[in-house]
Write a structure and sequence with these properties.
It is a single chain. The protein folds into two domains: 11-121, Jelly Rolls; 153-266, Jelly Rolls, CATH 2.60.120.10. It has one helix and 24 strands. The two termini are 27 Å apart. It has 282 residues and is mostly beta strands. It has one helix at 262-266; strands spanning 11-13, 28-34, 44-50, 55-60, 65-71, 73-78, 81-86, 90-93, 99-103, 110-116, 124-125, 133-136, 147-149, 157-160, 163-169, 179-185, 194-195, 200-206, 208-213, 216-221, 225-228, 234-237, 244-250, 258-259.
């Protein structure tokens, strides 16, 4: 949406009922969520759903990519090096690195979240033949271009009371242009009202979230995604009786935020703009 002055504001992208991209391989649905079409700059996000036994053939991208497994188990092959990834694991792929992925389970879908360091993602075919090497649950070598971050081995931090976060990709792992991770909210948990100096994408991968943006309130679930432009006050809350989880992505190389008065998110105060001095939330 846009405000009265024509500036791009938040966009809520529903996941249910969306048509897959026309170039999706058989048995696979590729869904773009946040792209230049929303007004995003410098990054994009989406979801891939792969049926049992399906395989995305070798391909590469002209931009950096991070792929996080949402559900299921994947066999990820990067220039012949084969890894097994589970829910919560994330793999980083520099531009131009050929890779393929297979749904490693015979009776359930594989769901993966992708993020690119461009607002206009593109895919190129790759017809090279690579020697095979099974790595299983292992990690890439220092000389390999790819990086894998295992969710279960990552440091967990409590960003707000009962809101637990894990960073999965960003500059510290060598990924340029984007960063992101996973957040888990217990019932009643919420983040304070805040802004960023860069665009953000938030995909709800478990449970139901309430998103507040300058007095506007949205309910998201089932991979529904919110695009929040830089400088717009917002917050996420779990007002349900179950857990809620999200995958967040910033168009920046490391996460950062500025806490502002909670009444800017509730709409009780009019937001004067991103030049506002930092405040503590109330």
């Amino acid at each position: 949406m846009t405000d009265a002055g024509g500036a791009v504001r938040e966009t809520i992208v529903p996941a249910q009922g969306r048509a897959a991209e026309a170039d999706s391989p058989p048995g696979i649905g590729l869904y773009r969520l946040v792209t230049a079409a929303c007004g995003a700059t410098g990054f994009s996000t989406g979801i891939a759903r792969m049926g049992p036994g399906t395989q995305m053939p070798y391909h590469s991208h002209p931009d950096n990519e991070a792929i996080t497994i949402v559900a299921g188990r994947a066999r990820f092959v990067v220039e012949g090096r084969a890894y097994r990834l589970h829910a919560g694991d994330c793999i980083h792929l520099p531009a131009g690195v050929a890779h393929m992925v297979r749904n490693d389970r015979p009776a359930s879908d594989l769901v993966a979240h992708w993020a690119f360091s461009t607002a206009t993602p593109a895919r190129d075919g790759a017809d090279r033949v690579f020697p095979g090497e099974e790595r299983g649950e292992g990690s890439p070598a220092e000389s390999d271009p790819e990086t894998i971050v295992r969710h279960d081995l990552s440091a967990v931090y409590e960003l707000a009371k009962n809101a637990f976060f894990v960073d999965l990709f960003g500059q510290r792992w060598g990924l340029q242009g984007i960063c992101g991770g996973h957040g888990r909210f217990l019932p009643g948990a919420s983040l304070p009202c805040h802004i960023h100096d860069f665009d953000e994408s938030i995909t709800i991968v478990e449970g139901t979230a309430i998103c507040q943006v300058e007095g506007r309130r949205y309910e998201l679930s089932g991979c529904d995604t919110a695009y929040i432009p830089k400088g717009v006050p917002h917050r996420f809350l779990n007002q349900s009786s179950g857990e809620m989880s999200m995958i967040w992505v910033y168009a920046a190389e490391e996460p950062d935020r500025r806490i502002v008065n909670a009444r800017y998110c509730s709409g009780d105060l009019a937001w004067p703009g991103a030049a506002l001095a930092e405040e503590e939330s109330t």
